[in-house]
Design goal:
Oligomer: heterotrimer
CATH topology of the largest domain in chain A: D-Maltodextrin-Binding Protein, domain 2
Largest interface: B-C, 108 and 104 residues
Distance between the termini of chain A: 62 Å
Shape of chain A: globular
CATH topology of chain C: MetI-like fold
Number of strands of chain C: 0
CATH superfamily of the largest domain in chain A: Periplasmic binding protein-like II
Helix content of chain A: 40-55%
CATH class of the largest domain in chain A: Alpha Beta
Number of helices of chain A: 15
CATH architecture of the largest domain in chain A: 3-Layer(aba) Sandwich
Chains: A alpha/beta, B mainly alpha, C mainly alpha
CATH superfamily of chain C: MetI-like
């Protein structure tokens, strides 16, 4: 069968051609990486400009905190430095490698777009949008030294601690640092929490006509087989938050997550809790009609659900208010540090804040924006009510670690395998 | 005379099995296709809305995605490279074992089944753990995935080539060819490969399905292959994503079936002819 | 040249099959396996070593290694359960389908389609497969709806059916287990000569006798081999079961909890679990290969 020989020869030639084409791409990437190594901007200069603005005193526990700050200084300090940073970024490869930013999470799609509009010429590709925080840290290690290494990350507070311990962050103080409350940034400048949200209960009212409004409601028998968390709390940050919120609703506290575990054990026993994860696919197919998830995940989901023909209602449970943030920071030794800093500046800027608002997340600089009159009624549409937001107090790292330990011991026997 | 296959219901059992299998494998595809292509949610889906709002928009939109064509291209390249390396590695090895080292056969078979012992999630973690520390450069090339794909396809591919070698009398063919004055390369090219053609093709098909389905290691090494793209697209656009997955599933099956039909060898046709003859009723004298 | 070639070939034969008479074993022939061995070493054994190393270093040690097994015993039991059940069912259905497809004469394209689909489906899995079954048998599934409205029977009101529970996973796993079995068994069924069927009939045997005395014994090694292969396949399946039930108590899910996630710190535990998993599957594989050898007899002739 001579034609087989020809086929094989043809495939061999084809593969050689392809290998040649493939190698060209790699070579290009490699050369751009080596040429941009020397271009760095000393982070100290930007930090200095920010710290000259006198930091206001503020109550550390509650959010939103009062920030007294003359609006003029920030604008002046930010503007000039940002232009220089933009220029440096353009010289530094004009690209910021991002990771784990799904489109519908706190309206990252809009924020990514507004970044590209504000800084034309700079690309912001997102690799592995559904990566977990641990996978982000893994990517830093696995891809270190390569041109596609992440330049900036967005991780859960627990993983941010680990990142600091491993030296993954390059400390960077933003130009608007003074306007960010203390409990939403790292004291050493490693990370900043550009947004936060609270736990919400979203209901697909086509399938479940009466939407539950509080955690207590979830116990009703009419909700059999429809309540879902966003994953397993032993591994998923949003599920962890869901259990914590349920705990608060049932007499627990940031130091005591047990009531939350007991609550879900009860839900499972009466058959209301289902073990299917809440994600785009299950929500749209209707497998998870009542979903407990971050408030800033809902605006994105709602559009998709309504597109699929369902109606949605979102409620913020008043009995269990739990707020959580994610930490963003510049990655040390990354290929495009200037662009990374530009990105961080963007997410704490007014445009970034408005983007987060649209996604239903509370931006860190909310008070400053409100004072500057940058927020109109329409932008507040997706936000949880202010009285609930004022009850938010974030967990300390020790509390998170303690709660995680309790979960790992008890969630399995009491809920998962029960 | 033979009573086999003569009963009218001799094929009833097997046919029922095939019909049952068809139902089991096709039903989920049908329900998923409905979910993907029709914008009517299940609670509202009744006889009345059976034909409402069907559209291919979700599916056709994927072809406009920036990342679609590069991802598909990358996977095709990887598949071809994997097939070539697999064949280059396995055909000589299998021949060698058959001709020179029959004692090694159990060992080699054990080695080729090893990839099943290390599951993908562990392999990806192990690759990251080991090569990260010792050979970082491996991660940067897009061809880095190829050796791991060769490994993952080993159980299928080695078995296929091995079966092919078993089916032909390798030793006699080789001896005859060498007697007639052919060197090893000529023997390989003009005697062995043509006879092994169907098993080589089968090995290639199976390798391609492995490459098309592998996700874990590609994500670990951050390569934008087609399965990775497909999964991420599914994450942001479930209807379109699932339509794409179905298209991939059905398209690959159709392609492989057509290729396999076209390349059925004479031996296979003869065997089927025998089966047909055994099953056919005798002519009335 | 030709004579010496024949001689070499015969010699090679003799060396391999002769009774060793106080001779040093010939090592040079094994050198031919070097490329293959090196390839395996680099890309399979070294990553495996990477896993094992991480299981025993850092905060890991032989004590924690055994402790991990104790702690996660339930996960291992769960994994073994689902693997055994899906492998057993896979053997039964896979063999039946392979036999039906291999011996079918009409339509002509049947075998090609079956083998092509099997090749593709055996590599399927993960969220897509889970989604496929959600749309059919999930709470909002088309099948569930048809049964509820057509037959008046609500599957989810019963205790025994739930796509997210054990038997649900088993059903979904069948979608890739059966094709795997079919792929393995098709060549084996080809080895069942039609002549044997006729001979059995001529000697007065029924279909049942044929299967009991000829068919099944011939296919048995292949079937058992397929069983063990499917066992390993099901044991290592992760994405599919996680998409169905994110709290599934099976080993791969526990490994992924440790390796990735937002909460908790990564320790040596997931690596220890992965090492245990490799041990369990390696034992199954060992059994598989002993049985594979016996299957050879019937293929070549």
């Amino acid at each position: 069968m001579r034609h087989v020989n020809k086929t094989i020869a043809g495939l061999a030639v084809l593969s050689l051609v392809l290998a040649a084409c493939g190698d060209d791409d790699d070579d290009d990437a490699a050369t751009t990486a080596t040429t941009e190594a020397p271009a760095t901007e000393a982070p100290g200069t930007t930090a200095a400009a920010a710290t000259t603005a006198a930091p206001a005193t503020e109550a550390p526990e509650t959010v939103p905190a009062e920030v007294t700050e003359a609006p003029g200084t920030t604008a002046a300090g930010g503007g000039g430095d940002l232009d220089a940073l933009y220029q440096a970024c353009l010289d530094n490869g004009a690209q910021v490698n991002l990771i784990a930013l799904p489109d519908e999470w706190a309206n990252y799609k809009g924020i990514l777009e507004s970044f590209r509009e504000k800084y034309p010429g700079v690309e912001n590709p997102v690799q592995n949008p559904n990566a977990s925080s641990q996978e982000e840290l893994d990517a830093i290690v696995n891809l270190s030294g390569q041109p596609d290494m992440p330049d900036a990350i967005d991780v859960s507070p627990a993983k941010a601690q680990e990142a600091i311990a491993q030296g993954f962050f390059e400390p960077y103080v933003t130009s608007v640092d003074a306007e960010i409350p203390d409990n939403l940034k790292d004291p050493d400048g490693h990370w900043v929490a550009a947004y936060y949200g609270i736990i919400a209960i979203g209901t697909n009212t086509t399938i479940v006509p009466n939407a539950p409004q509080t955690f207590a409601d979830l116990r009703k028998p009419e909700y059999e087989g429809v309540v879902a968390l966003n994953g397993d709390p032993r591994t998923s940050g949003s599920a962890f938050a869901g259990v914590m919120a349920a705990s608060i609703a049932n007499g627990g506290s940031p130091d005591d997550i047990m009531p939350g575990i007991e609550f879900f054990a009860e839900l499972k026993e009466i058959g209301n809790l289902i073990p299917t994860s809440v994600d785009q696919a299950t929500v749209i197919s209707g497998e998870t009609p009542i979903a407990i998830d971050w408030s800033y995940n809902w605006p994105g989901l709602r559009g998709q659900i309504e597109d699929a023909g369902y109606t949605v209602e979102i409620h913020f449970p008043s009995d269990g208010v739990y707020g959580g943030y994610y930490s963003q920071g510049v990655v040390a030794d990354s290929p495009h540090p200037d662009c990374a800093k530009l990105w961080i500046e963007h997410i704490v800027s007014n445009e970034g804040a408005l983007g987060y608002l649209e996604g239903g997340a509370m931006p860190a600089r909310f008070a400053a924006l409100e004072e500057a009159g940058a927020i109109d009624e329409a932008s507040l549409a997706e936000l949880p009510p202010a009285d609930l937001l004022s009850q938010v107090s974030f967990l300390t790292d020790e509390q998170v670690a303690a709660a995680t330990a309790v979960l790992e011991e008890n969630w399995g026997p009491m809920v998962a395998d029960a | 005379m033979s009573q086999v296959g003569r009963h009218r219901f001799a094929r009833l059992g097997p046919n029922l099995v095939l019909i049952g299998a068809a139902i089991f494998f096709i039903a989920p595809i049908l329900s998923t296709a409905r979910q993907a292509l029709q914008k009517v949610p299940m609670p509202l889906f009744t006889w009345g809305t059976l034909f409402d709002k069907w559209s291919l928009a979700g599916l056709t939109a994927v072809f406009d995605e920036d990342l679609f064509w590069p991802a598909l291209w990358l996977t095709l390249k990887l598949a071809i490279a994997t097939v070539l390396i697999t064949l280059t590695l396995l055909v000589p090895t299998a021949l060698y074992v058959h001709l020179r080292l029959p004692r090694a056969r159990p060992l080699v078979e054990f080695l080729t089944v090893l990839p099943y012992v290390v599951p993908p999630i562990a392999l990806a973690a192990g690759v990251a753990a080991f090569y990260r520390a010792n050979a970082r450069w491996l991660f940067s090339s897009q061809w880095a995935l190829v050796p791991f794909y060769v490994i993952m396809a080993l159980p299928f591919t080695y078995r296929s080539i091995d079966a092919g070698l078993n089916a032909i009398d390798v030793r006699t063919l080789v001896d005859a060819s060498r007697n007639l004055g052919a060197g090893w390369l000529t023997t390989l090219r003009r005697v062995l490969l043509p006879n092994l053609a169907s098993s080589i093709l089968s090995a290639s098909f199976l390798t391609t399905t492995v490459v098309l389905g592998e996700f874990t290691i590609a994500v670990t090494l951050n390569k934008q292959t087609f399965p990775v793209f497909s999964f991420q697209y599914f994450g942001r656009n479930p209807q379109g994503g699932i339509a794409l997955a179905l298209l991939t599933l059905l398209g690959t099956t159709a392609l492989l079936a057509v290729l396999s039909l076209l390349t059925r060898t004479k031996a296979q046709r003869a065997a089927r002819q025998k089966i047909r003859m055994a099953a056919a009723p005798l002519p009335i004298p | 040249m030709t004579v010496t070639d024949i001689a070499t070939t015969i010699d090679g034969d003799r060396a391999a099959s002769a009774v060793p008479v106080a001779r040093r074993p010939a090592l040079r022939p094994w050198a031919g396996l070097l490329p293959f061995g090196a390839f395996l070493f680099l890309f399979l054994l070294l990553p495996t070593y990477g896993i094992v190393e991480k299981a025993f270093t850092g905060d890991g040690s032989p004590e924690t290694f055994f402790q991990t097994f104790q702690d996660e015993r339930k996960a291992f039991v769960g994994s073994v359960k689902v693997s055994l059940v899906t492998a057993a069912l896979g053997v039964v259905f896979g063999t039946a389908i392979a036999y039906a497809a291999a011996t079918a004469t009409r339509p002509r394209w049947l075998r090609s389609v079956v083998s092509a689909f099997s090749g593709v489906a055996a590599n399927m899995g993960g969220v897509v497969l889970a989604f496929l079954f959600f749309t059919l048998l999930g709470r909002q599934g088309l099948g569930t709806k048809i049964v509820r409205e057509g037959l008046g029977y609500d599957l989810y009101k019963t205790d025994w059916f739930d796509i997210t529970s054990f038997w649900g996973w088993v059903t979904v796993y069948m979608y890739f287990q059966i094709p795997l079995m079919v792929l393995i068994t098709l060549p084996a069924v080809d080895g069942l000569r039609p002549a044997w069927r006729e001979a059995s009939a001529n000697l007065g045997g029924t279909t049942w006798t044929y299967w009991r005395r000829v068919g099944l014994p011939v296919l048995a090694p292949s079937m058992l081999g397929g069983f063990l292969l499917m066992f390993a396949n099901a044991f290592s399946a992760y994405a599919t079961v996680y998409a169905l039930n994110n709290q599934a108590n099976v080993v791969p899910v526990k490994i992924s909890f440790g390796l990735s996630g937002d909460v908790g710190v990564r320790s040596s535990t997931p690596y220890a679990l992965a090492t245990w998993m490799i041990i369990v599957i390696a034992l199954a594989m060992g059994g598989y290969l002993l049985l594979r050898k016996r299957a050879e007899r019937w293929h070549a002739s």
